[in-house]
Amino acid sequence: MRRADVSVDCFILPTLLRVSAKAVDCGGIAVGREAHGLAIKLGFESDPFVQTALAGVYAAGGLFEDARMVFERMLYRDVVAWKVILDFYYQAGKYNETVKLFEDMKSSGVSPDNVIISTILAACRHTGNLTIGKAIHSYIVKSNVSIDNHIRSALIAMYCSCHSLKTAYKLYKEMHPKNLVASTAMVFGYSKMGKMEIARSIFNKILHKDLVLWTAMISGYAESEQPSEALELFNQMLAMELRPDKITFLSVISACAHLGALDKAKWIHLFVDSNGFSDVLSINNALIDMYAKCGSLSMAQTVFDKMQVKNVISWTSMMTGFGMHGEGSRALELFEEMNATGVEPNAVTFVGLLYACSHSGLVDEGRRLFKAMVHVHKIEPKHEHYGCMVDLLGRAKLVQEAIELIDSMPFPPNVVEWGSLLGACQNHGDVGLGELAAKRLLELDPDHDGAYVLLSNIYAKANQWEKVDEVRKLMKGRDISKERGRSWIEIDGELHEFLVGDESHPKSNEIHKKLHEMVKELEATGYSPDVGSVLVNLEEDERRAAVLFHSEKIALAFGLLVSTPGSCIRITKNLRTCKDCHSFVMLASRIFGREIVLRDRTRFHHFKDGHCSCNNFW
Ligand SMILES: [Zn+2]
Ligand SMILES: [Zn+2]
């Protein structure tokens, strides 16, 4: 056109620029720059249409500085210009700036249209900015902007992610028909608050569910510690012939990790491979974590070794896995290897390493790593790191050093450090210091059920029953109840769950008969119940009965009853296992010739021939 000597005017340029913006992948930017030069030459540079279109080309090409410069130079900015720049910031993930720019726009007297309103609501959703979100809502109401389903969904999504579920639900109730975006937001919102029943009832009412909605519900279950439900739903989704994506897989893998069920873990791994996700970094990292939590370090290692590309998360997951299984020195070896490959450790890596040291009693190495973290790797220690160190020192009976460390912290100690110290006091029966730690902990978090339980354990151990009663009364008064102990065992791919004292299993009679037989056999070799962890002052018989029916013992009796003779028995427990159960299972591994893997709240115990991998150090 220019070669034909047709003159370019301020009407043709914006059109040309808009076309360029759509073609940024095939030379659009170059054309845009040429047009920009031409505009300057021809004196159209400050034409608002030309400027808006120019900003649009640069924005589409991701040229942040250029777009912003053109925009700043504009003397007159209309709603279209604002839309371009706001959308640009939003798409670039700069949500706070988007909201700030929107404020500028309002003060310049330009009224937003529906598209801008949805963009800003979405930005508020990302940043959790309820104040601006609410202000926009009242603006909509005041200025009679019609609330179509698009705006309504944006409002619902914003309220959901700002945890204002009541308002969100009100808007959702008035929505007819309910669309998928809004329904998914509601499911997400309720799941995040742990209100799974409401989330599920919304989910159930949607007839045509898409992958995003299914995934929202599945990840909701996975994150609210309802892994069985997550897996069940995943199976239902597969039955609908929907293909899972990366996010779905990550949720399901995390559910398997939570469950600690190795057969299920292997199944999902096969499924990941057959769907072509075996080279995805985040999936492989999740698989390492899953196998470690399902008790198979060797499978975790296989995944780790096969990975072509590893990042700091891959290394950290593997090290944490070693730590969980009491293989502290292997974690340290891996750390050396990682350093040699040039991958920089981060704060999480050191949490894993210090945790590994603490669970293997590697005091000197722990001290050395803590120093290296600060001085060599320039990582500021956080509560988690101090907590691990206090734990490490406390377990090694270096309580004085632990207290000195707490005193040296640059910030006031929180529940992590006091909790670790309290745990140490329980292990060593230190009543005075335990009381102090518990007091501090409860000042910070009066509803900390763990603190009450640990404190009463300390009193019970010292036979101070009046004090145990006092703590129990305190707990009752505050309506705090100890989480009930429960254990899972997987037999032929099926999970069986047992609560403490459980008699609900169809084979309950046989199980309890078996349990009593086991006690007899163990007692013949010198076992006697350790009732120190019973929190009530009962008669001796009753206290013995109380520990006998701990869920992991019931699960073990069931395992011995139904599993293939000689096979490894794997049990997962939701709480920390007590001393009595630990020696019970340890002895059972020898008497019944079984390898038993027990995962409790904090770590793994591998029992074999009357020994445990934790060396009674947990
Ligand atoms: Zn127990
Ligand atoms: Zn152990």
From TrEMBL:
Classification via InterPro entries: DYW_dom, E2_motif, E_motif, PPR_At4g14850-like_plant, PPR_rpt, TPR-like_helical_dom_sf
First and last residue of the signal peptide: none
Keywords, ordered alphabetically: Repeat
Pfam family membership, one: Eplus_motif
GO molecular function terms listed in the Swiss-Prot or TrEMBL record: RNA binding; zinc ion binding
PPR repeat positions: 78-112, 210-244, 311-345
Gene Ontology terms: biological process: RNA modification
Domain DYW: 526-618
Membership in a protein family: Belongs to the PPR family. PCMP-H subfamily.
NCBIfam families xref list: PPR
Protein name (Swiss-Prot/TrEMBL): DYW domain-containing protein
Native source species: Vanilla planifolia
Record lineage: Eukaryota, Viridiplantae, Streptophyta, Embryophyta, Tracheophyta
